[in-house]
Amino acid sequence: MPLGEFLRAARESAGLSIDELAEATSLRAGLLNEIEKNNFVHCGGDTYARGHLRNIAPKISVDAQTLIDLYNEEHSTEARTIHDMLVENNVTKLPSERKTLSWKPLAIASIVVLAAIAGGQIIISNSETMVTPTVSEPSTPPPAATPTVQPTPTVEATVEATVQPPAEPDATGELKLTIAATRGNSNIDIVVGGKHLFKGPIFQGDSKSFSAPTSMSIYVSNAGDLDLTLNGKELAPLGERNQEVRKTFKSK
């Protein structure tokens, strides 16, 4: 049974609808529908797909490793052996049959070598009886070496932490920040007062909210795919896709 059908049967056996499973796992119902159709294209790769399966497993009373094994057999790009990948890239070659050499080419090669040695000895003996005058030419200094300029390596730097202009506090006087993974997955780290409120992944379609009395520092690994709302006001994107960004928000 394909993995998608197995998941649907286990969910129905657990008495859960798609919407109930979506609420229990914080995953989109549309993404769960695709997974139950054996479509993992929008999961963001093997790592995120396995994370979704680990999240779903306890909700439908199934061992997580069972789901991971089925996924690896049907969908993982890491299932091929190292030898297969090396052969594919011509790093190693498949063993071929050994061919025995015929004695005839070896005999002909030996005769040619002996003839060449004999001819060389005749030429050397003749040259020893002849004296050829040589004219020495004035030596010229070798051309000066031209120094080469080594290219300066470029380093792509992560956007450093910056402080946003003070935000208007809400009615309670606190900062309230909502992060929505609208276009892709990302890792986030939320720090308030030197403590981590949350540190981990946020998957596409999910959103998380945080609050702080006066200031809040955040780190995101994929700024271009996230939408942020601060005290009810939607902020401009913090950076480009796959760009790491650190920001600090403060209230007035």
Description:
The two termini are 59 Å apart. α4 (46-56) runs antiparallel to α5. It is built from seven helices and nine strands; from the N terminus they run αααααααβββββββββ. Among the domains are: 3-74, lambda repressor-like DNA-binding domains (434 Repressor (Amino-terminal Domain)), CATH 1.10.260; 159-250, no CATH class. It has 252 residues and is an alpha+beta fold. It has helices spanning 3-13, 18-25, 29-36, 46-56, 64-74, 82-88, 103-127; strands spanning 159-163, 175-180, 186-192, 195-202, 207-212, 215-220, 227-230, 233-234, 245-250. The strands form two sheets. It has a five-stranded mixed β-sheet, with no helix packed on it.
CA-CA gap between termini:
59 Å
What ranges have pLDDT less than 50 throughout 5 or more consecutive residues?
A: 83-97, 151-157
Structural category? alpha+beta
Shape: elongated
What series of H and E elements makes up the topology?
HHHHHHHEEEEEEEEE
Beta-strand content estimate: 15-25%
What does the oligomeric state look like here?
single chain
Major sheet details? 5 strands, mixed
